[in-house]
Amino acid sequence: MQELILSDNHNINKTKTRQETAKVISKYFFLSLKYVILGLFVITVFLPIIPILFGSLKDGNEFFASGVLDFPKSWKWNNYKTAFIDGNMLTGFINTLIIMIVSLAVSVLTGAMTSYVLHRFVFKGQKVVKNLFLLATLIPNITNNIATFQIISWLNLFNTRWAGILLFSGTDIISVYIMMQFLDSISKSMDESAMIDGASYLRIFLVIIFPLLMPAIITVFIIKGVAIYNDFVTPFLFMPSPDLAMISTALYNFKGPFAASWEIISAGVILITLPMLASFVVMQKWIYNGLVMGSVKE
Asked: Are 96 and 247 in contact (CB under 8 A)?
């Protein structure tokens, strides 16, 4: 009898050991699979950049004679100097910075005010306003260029920085929804307390709501800033003067005097990419936090 009991215990322990081993194997299998998939995503993202990086460090003959993934034989760092100075990229960076600062300030302020009104007040046509914002995102921008060009010309803003500032200053549905989500976490009792103390709606917004919206504002600031930085059509159509070139059109200007110098163009691409890459690495915490804020209701 005792031998039978010992045999049963041995079988039970053996079964438990097998189950634990299977769990460990399963855990490490899915962990490995996760890292393999993440590695493939990283390769997919960085693979197009590697030929550009290698190409920017080659001379003209080596660029065409070697493969796209071949290491440069002699590292031509002078390509970056040529791209920056002869390509007039400093002007592009300055124009981009000026337009981004002014238009982002206006866009964030109007977006925050719009979100505050749509979130805090109930009025006739509220849903229509929200739907119009959504409808505007469904219309391709390219279809509005003729009408936009006529308006800019009528305002005498063509070929001035104000054309870019005006066109980039508008808010959009993404900014409005991010801020409206964050407004869900700000209690309406704060508004009511301020109203009892005699504060106006404008003062409540500027003194109480706007500072509390700062995490959402930073997120909108980054997302909108990247969109302005990468936009090519607006400066190309409305600010064609070389003195008004933004960083996207400054790169396009390489097609003229540097039409055959693809190593110089590659260096320009790397120079343009670096500021946005550094900004994303530094500020990614605010981007992710801002996008998920308000998504969980308590």
From this structure: yes
Is there a contact between 58 and 66 (Cβ–Cβ < 8 Å)?
yes
Query: What pLDDT is stored for residue 10 in this prediction?
Result: 67
Give per-residue pLDDT as tens, 202-259: 888 888 888 888 888 888 888 888 888 888 888 888 988 888 888 888 777 666 555 5
Amino acid letter, residue 75: W
For residue 5, what pLDDT is reported? 63
Q: Is the dihedral of CA 183, 187, 189, 193 positive or negative?
A: negative
As a dihedral over the C-alpha atoms of residue 187, residue 188, residue 194, residue 195, rounded to 10 degrees, the angle is 180
Q: Which of 165, 161, 17, 45 is nearest to 104 (CA)?
A: 165
Instruction: Decide: 189 and 200 in contact? Cβ < 8 Å.
Output: no
Nearest to residue 59, comparing CAs of 259, 261, 252? 261
Furthest-apart CA pair in the chain: how many Å?
103
* Reduced DSSP (H G I as helix, E B as strand, rest coil) percent helix, strand, coil of the chain, to 5: 80, 0, 20
What does the alpha-carbon distance between residue 272 and residue 74 come to, in Å, rounded to a whole number? 23
How many Å from the N-terminal Cα to the C-terminal Cα in the chain?
59
- The owner of tokens 């103390």 is 197
Whole-number pLDDT of residue 28: 86
